[in-house]
Amino acid sequence: MDNRINKAVSIYKQLYNTDNKKFKFLPNWLETTSYWFNMEHNNNINKKYKKFSRGSIIYLDFGINIGHEFSGRHFGIVLNKNDSPYNSLVTVVPLSSKNKKHYLPLQNIVFKTSLSILNKTVDNIEFDLDVINHVIFTVIEIINKNNLQNTLEQNTIDYLDDFAIKTRFPTEREVINKSKNIVESFNLYNDPKNFSALFNYLLIDVNDRKSKVNNLREVINKYKKFDKNTFTCTQNVVTISKLRILKINAEDPSGRMKLDFDSMKLVDNEIKNKLIN
User: What UniProt keywords are attached to this protein's entry (predicted)?
Assistant: First the structure.
């Protein structure tokens, strides 16, 4: 093995053990880089890539770079005019939530709108979870009664009276209708033993929804950094591989978000003034 590799590894280890925060991400970056090098060597990299519109906001890993070159994971604005699924590169201008010299302030409409939608989605899912939880107990109450068909609605109402919640509580009619539909779809009128299948179905549904809420909250916390201030780092325009594009998780809408026309015009003018004129 070339001794220069061992020397580089030794230096990386020394840097990782310093107080420089940038170098704390070295293990992740080196692992990622070696992974893609290996994929490239074995010809296992896809030939087609996601196509992005100009102005799209994407989340990228800029890597660990030298000096004032942009490093780490950040959002960026796509500058490509005519992107293609066969284009493996994307040119971006990075975004920051912190103001620095030469940074261009932007209106944060995109992140504000996305946060509003994400928070509303969380509210809707949590409301559904309220309904499902109450339906589970309601169906248990229903099954415990011998006369299922005739006592369904009154049992449900009695249950709701006992377990009333002051805030964001589903209406009686919502739970009643959902309970009826579930009881009928699982044929509980004729065979209450099917409740075990119903319970497993609802349990999976609840866990899936809870997982989605956790993912949404992770995205929301990341986006909150841009809720008040958003700046473009026009001096750090860079062309990088689309393989560096990331998602915070499955609920991250980056890539589908797009900068408005006026903000994009500001970015274009700033790039012209800083890099061309």
Answer: Toxin-antitoxin system
